[in-house]
Amino acid sequence: MAEPPAYRGPGYGDVNYAPKHEELDPKYDIEKPQEDAVFGEVVEGGPNYRAVGWKGTSVLMMKTQIGLGILSLPSAFDTLGLIPGVICLIAIAVITGWSSWIVGVFKLRHPEVYGIEDVGEKLFGRVGREFFGLAFALYWTFVGGSAMLGISIALNALSTHATCTAVYVAVAAVIGFGLCSIQTLGRISWLAWVGLIGILSGVMTLTIAVAVEGRPSTAPKDGPWKSDFKLFGSPSFGEATAALCTLIFAYGGVPAFFNIVSEMRRPEHYTRALIVCQTVMTVLYIVVGVVVYYYCGSFVASPALGSAGPLLKKVCYGLALPGLIVSMTLVCHITAKYFFIRFFRGTKHLNHNTMIHWVSWLGLTGAVCIVAYIIASAIPNFGALVSLIGALFGTLMTFQSMGMMWFYDHWTKGKAEKSTRWMSLVFWAGFIIASGTFLMIAGTYGSVLGIKDTYSGSNGPTAWSCADNSNST
Fold first, then answer.
1. pTM of the full predicted structure?
2. Of 290, 292, 293, 295, the residue nearest 225 (C-alpha)
3. Is the residue at 24 inside a domain?
4. What HEC string does 93-121 produce?
5. HSE (CB half, 13 Å, CA atoms) of 138?
6. Is residue 251 one of the residues assigned to a domain?
7. Furthest-apart CA pair in the chain: how many Å?
8. Nearest C-alpha neighbor of 55 from the set 190, 180, 182
9. What is the CA radius of gyration of the chain?
10. Partners of 234 in the beta sheet?
11. Which of 29, 31, 47, 194 could form a disulfide with 183 if both were Cys (CB 3.0 to 4.6 A apart)?
């Protein structure tokens, strides 16, 4: 693990980093840092934002990633075909792995950075800050909406559609408000463990179930069954780009890694957590996506948990429900905290439990949950919503911004030396920016067409619908 840079910036004095390979000196108080470049002074009785260890960080990172995205992978493979789907997934895993690593490097070089909006300000000034901040807030609010939609699907499946779907979306919003109002990620990290175990249990149960049963719940009931999976698909341009953006969404938690590393006790351990996160995620994505699609073929549901039989569908959704709730909790919490820090950074209301602190914090978490609820109700097709989020915001937050960050730190110095390594990285960062821009434009086009087709269909879900959304494919 590389040592942090010699210059640590304002707020990253000795209180925030402990020396390596020796006993901790009393002045290195990593459990309760006294000063931080983002959160300021830690006061007694106030929230300690810097309280997450590297293991908790890896779980938080996995939970921002593993959840909604994994439930849409088999349907993306159905569009692209099994072999191109796996190749594209691995390619996106490599790109987002590099992007995630750049987040940690950039944070150590610029400790005053809290989120992607601070990166925007460094890159393009005030305009960049406003643009990236708005994009980040919209992105995670849309993700929160998709999580609420996923929860409504789970509640419909568990209750056999006991009440109106719009009611279940509202219930999800209320639960989200209660949990995301917890002040710090350190206090939420235990929820991430619960959610991660839940979602993994659900998808692994699904994987085993479809392999044992051999017939998805939506397939014809009569006669012999053989999966119609395709090694190579023949999608249209719009369908292919929308499917690629669905895969990007599965790795779309990268921009939130800034917010997570900012609450680590020792940010220099970030790469350790990232390696665990990216490795576990990619292996799990490949196994689940391939097995579920292989056995279900074109009859795979979206979300994929609906692909098992009636009883096992209830079991899978029951196991995964805590994971869906925690996904919603994390994204709504991170979005609300973006606004909270934006408003109160540098003031006592950020780290003191004042009346303004609590009224503002609860008002922001409530507002985020309300907007996410509106999104979930207005775009009730899970697959279409996931694809739109990945295209419109996921690429910008995960591809272009990270490539620009590399240029910001390395262009001037590298241009003077022009080493082979530097030129190779220039090509790589440029490729990431160009490919991300292409997928953002093309993928948004394909996703919008998909949403249009959803509304034009006679049997598709509609806005604020009471119809059962747990049987969609």
1. 0.80
2. 295
3. no
4. HHHHHHHHHHHHHHHHHCCCCCCHHHHHH
5. 15
6. yes
7. 74
8. 190
9. 22
10. none
11. 47
Q: Show Cβ contacts of residue 31 under 8 Å, excluding neighbours closer than 6 positions.
A: 51, 265
Round to whole Å and give the CA distance between 89 and 81.
12
The terminus-to-terminus CA distance of the chain in angstroms comes to: 45
**Residue 401 placed within a domain:** yes
Amino acid identity of residue 280, one-letter, is: V
DSSP characters over 337-378 = HHHHHHHHTTSHHHHS--HHHHHHHHHHHHHHHHHHHHHHHH
Flag the least confident range among 71-80, 414-423, 432-441: 414-423
Q: What angle do CA 416, 8, 62 make, to 5 degrees?
A: 95
* Residue-number span of the structural domain to which 273 is assigned: 54-220+234-456
Specify the number of domains making up the chain: 1
Element spanning 177, H or E: helix 165-180
- pLDDT of 213 reads 74
Separation in Å, CA 230 to CA 8, 290, 293: 52, 11, 9
Residue 65 lies in a domain: yes
Question: What type of residue sits at position 405?
Answer: M
- In terms of Cα–Cα distance, which of 279, 286, 239 is closest to 96? 279
Residue-wise pLDDT tens digits, 201-241: 988 898 888 888 767 777 777 777 788 889 999 998 888 98
What CATH number is associated with residue 212? 1.20.1740.10
**Range ranked top by mean pLDDT from 430-434, 456-460, 469-473:** 430-434
What would the two tokens of residue 250 be?
């599965």
Q: Which residues does 274 contact at the CB level (< 8 Å), separation at least 6?
A: 58, 61, 97, 100, 101, 104, 257
Q: Which range scores top for mean pLDDT: 82-91, 164-173, 186-195, 407-416?
A: 82-91
